[in-house]
Design goal:
With 227 residues, the protein is an alpha+beta fold. It is 26% helix and 26% strand. It is built from 5 helices and 11 strands; from the N terminus they run ββββααβββαβαββαβ.
Length: 227
């Protein structure tokens, strides 16, 4: 399982734009209330959730039995649609970003990545993610996470990104380590709403360390779709 904390209860394509690499990294906070950018590396796509994603999202991440380390998800298609509407409303307020994870040749999201600010302007933020069990171990999530992380650090201006993972969440902790995150300590009863594991590991990723490690120059693209 590749999960950490989960938050929350197009037409008119524009040309693809290349995200800046580390040599030109000088991020400044961007306006976060417009359309969420669609990011793709040719293998995986992350984009804003739509109402059409609700059935697939429910099937993939809505079951506590499948994702025991994540706070309870939607229990019906209508609850999934309500959650998707909530993500759009929160983004419109500049309080939350949520991408659906779409596999190669897929049409609907099989997971999601959420980001919310801890400090004003997203300079310090927290993220959580969940991907359906059928896609564990396929490399789908690390690829999706790389797209989101590069966008957050290079474009949004995030300097420090935090995550919490249950101590018993082997996959979640493993993928955070593989992404370059550093464990900073144990949070006792860190997320009481997740019954399977009361204690959580606090992880952090720093923008400078991310770019120093990855030196991305592989043509990662962000394609913006007006909603």
């Amino acid at each position: 399982m590749i999960t950490t904390r989960v938050q929350g209860g197009a037409a008119g394509n524009q040309p693809a734009v290349e995200l800046p690499g580390p040599a030109v990294w000088a991020p400044s906070p961007i306006r976060l209330r417009g359309p969420l950018p669609r990011l793709s590396d040719g293998r995986v796509t992350v984009r804003a959730l739509t109402a059409a994603d609700a059935p697939a999202l429910l099937a993939q991440v809505g079951s506590p039995a499948r994702l025991p380390h994540v706070a309870a998800g939607p229990r019906s298609v209508e609850e999934a649609r309500s959650f998707i509407r909530w993500t759009h409303a929160q983004r419109a307020r500049g309080r939350h970003l949520c991408w659906g994870v779409v596999p190669p040749d897929g049409r609907h999201a099989v997971g999601m990545v959420q980001v919310w600010p801890i400090e004003h302007g997203f300079s310090t933020a927290e993220w959580g993610f969940a991907v359906g069990a059928g896609f564990w171990g396929t490399g789908l999530f690390p690829a999706a996470a790389g797209l989101v992380l590069h966008y957050l650090f290079a474009t949004v201006g995030v300097r420090r990104l935090e995550a919490r993972a249950g101590v018993g969440n082997g996959r979640g902790n493993s993928v955070l380590r593989k992404l370059g995150a550093t464990p900073e300590g144990l949070l006792r009863s860190g997320l009481p709403q997740v019954a399977a594991s009361q204690d959580h590991v606090m992880w952090s990723l720093l923008a400078g360390e991310w770019f120093a490690e990855h030196q991305r120059s592989d043509g990662c693209t962000a394609v913006v779709h007006e909603r």
